[in-house]
Amino acid sequence: MFSRLARPVIAIQTVQRTFSTSAKQDAKVAVLGASGGIGQPLALLLKNLPLVSHLSLYDIAHTPGVAADLSHIESRAKVTGHMGPEQLKDCLKGADIVLIPAGVPRKPGMTRDDLFNTNASIVRDLADACAEVCPEAMLGIITNPVNSTVPIASEVFKKRGVYDPKKIFGVTTLDAVRANTFIAEMKGLDVSKVHVPVIGGHSGVTIIPLISQCTPPVSFPQEEREKLTVRIQNAGTEVVEAKAGAGSATLSNETEAKYFATPLVLGKTGFEKNLGLGKLIEYEVKLLSSAMPELMANIKKGEDFINS
Length: 308
Hints:
Helix content: 40-55%
CATH class of one domain: Alpha Beta
Radius of gyration: 19 Å
Number of helices: 10
CATH superfamily of one domain: NAD(P)-binding Rossmann-like Domain
C-alpha cells in the first residue's frame, strides 16, 4: 500500500528524467515544504542524486535540522536550509528545479478539494516568490488539490509576466504508478515492465487510467475493469483511511480544459513532447466525459482564487 512516501519517489523520477536528457550536470534543486511528511523523504532522495549539486531546503520550521542531518550523507550535493519567509528568496536563487510539497495533508473523511482554503494561499505565495526569483526554473507542484494548485501557480506567473506553460507541472504520476502496481498484482506480471497511461486530473473521477493502452496488453471483464478503475481513482483515500489521520497519500491542451494531465517527455527546457491521449475505448470515453465537469470546476476554482 502506498503512503506519502510514494510522492517523493515520483518527484525524484521527474528530476532524473529531466536532467538525464539534458547536458546539465550541475543542478540546483529547491524543495519548498522540506520539513514535512513528503518534503523530508523527497530531500533525502534528492541528496543521493548525482546530478544535484545544490539541494536548497525551505520551510517555516525545522529546516536547519533537516539540512544538517542530510548534509552528513556522503554525496556531492551541498545542502542549505532556509527557514521562514525572510529566507525564501535565498533558497530560490539560481534554482533549476523547484518542487513544492508544502501544505497540509488530507485527514480521513476529507477530499483533496477540502484542502483548498489552506493550501491555495501557500501555493500562491510560494509561486509568487518563484516567479520573482527564478522564473525560468521548472516548477513541480505536489501540493493538493493539484487540479487547482497548478492553475493558481500558472495565474501567478501570468500576473508576473513570466509564464511558460512548458515549465509548470502537477506531479500526478503517482496515479500511473498505482495503476501499474494494481494491474501487475492482478495479472501476476513484473511490475517494472507494466506501464499504464493515466490522464485527466488528480482527484476522484478526474483520474482516468487508460487500461486499454497498458503495456503489456491486458484484458478484464467489464465489471472487473470498472472495479479496478474505481480503486485507482480512490487509492489516495484508501491510504488516508488506512493511516487513520497520520498522513496522506501534467497539463496540456488535449481537451477543452485549460489544464489536463497527459504523459509527457521532459527535457532541460521543460516538456518537449506531449504523448497525448491515444485511442480511447468506449468505456474510457465515458470516463473522460464524466471527469470534465469536475476538472474544469477545479481549474476555475484555482483561477478565481488569484483573479477575484
